[in-house]
C-alpha cells in the first residue's frame, strides 16, 4: 500500500517540474523509499515518514537537478549524503552517472552499501569527513552535490575542492537561498567558483532552490581547512 501511494505521488509530481522518468526507474526509486522508511524505524534517516511526502519532498525535490545539467556519464559526489539524498534518486533516474556517496556517519553509509546493490544501484559509499577525504579526491568530479547540510559559505569550502575546473557545485536550499548566496559571495570567489544561477522550484507548495556554482579555477591548496576552523571563521 505504501509503495502504491509513493508511486502515485511521484508520478504526479514529476511532469509539472518538467521531469520525465521511465516507469521502471520510478518503481526502483519507490522500492528504495520503502527500504528507507523501514530502516528509519530503527535508524534516523529521515524526518519525513509519510510515503507521499517522501515521493514529493525527497524524490521529486532531488530530481529537479536533472533539469539543470546533463548527468549522463558524469562523475558526481554527494557530500553529506545522509540517507542518500540527492545522490541516490539521481543515480536511479540516470544510471550512466558515476556516483560517490560521502558521509561521516558509518551506520548510514553501511546501510547504503548494503541496500543499493540489492536494488542494482552502483555507487561508491565512503565513510569520511569531507574536509579530510578531499586529500584523496581533489578536483576529481564533474559535479559536487549537497542538500541541506550547512550554510553555503561553509559548504563551498567543503565541496568546491572536489570539483574539476569547468564543473559545478549544486547546493540545494530552501527559501533562504538568495540570502545565503549573498553571504557566501567572498567564499565562492576565494575558492575558485563563480555563482552562475539560482533556480527556484515549487515543491509541495514550498519554495526550494538550487544554487549553481561553476568552478572557474583551481581551489587554493590551503582549502579546505579543519572543520572546527571552517565553522569558527567561515570565509
What's the count of strands? 7
Q: What is the H/E order?
A: HHHEHEHEHEHEHHEEH
Q: What about the largest sheet?
A: 7 strands, mixed
Strand order of the largest sheet: 3-2-1-4-5-7-6
Q: First CA to last CA: what distance? A: 48 Å
Give the radius of gyration. 17 Å
Strand pairing plus helix content: what structural class?
A: alpha/beta
Approximately what portion of the residues adopt beta-strand conformation? Answer: 15-25%
Mean pLDDT: 96
State the helical fraction: 40-55%
- Count of discrete alpha- or pi-helical segments spanning 4 or more residues: 10
What's the shape? globular
**Low-confidence spans: pLDDT under 50, at least 5 residues?**
none
What do these coordinates show?
The protein contains ten helices and seven strands. The chain is an alpha/beta fold. α7 (152-159) links the parallel β4 and β5. The longest helix is centred in the N-terminal third of the chain and has 17 residues, at 23-39.
Summarize, please.
This protein is of the alpha/beta class and 235 residues long.
List the helices and strands and how they pair.
Elements: H1 2-13, H2 23-39, H3 51-63, E1 75-79, H4 87-93, E2 98-103, H5 106-118, E3 123-127, H6 130-137, E4 141-147, H7 152-159, E5 163-173, H8 177-183, H9 185-190, E6 193-203, E7 206-215, H10 227-232
Helix pairs in contact: 1-2, 1-3, 2-3, 2-4
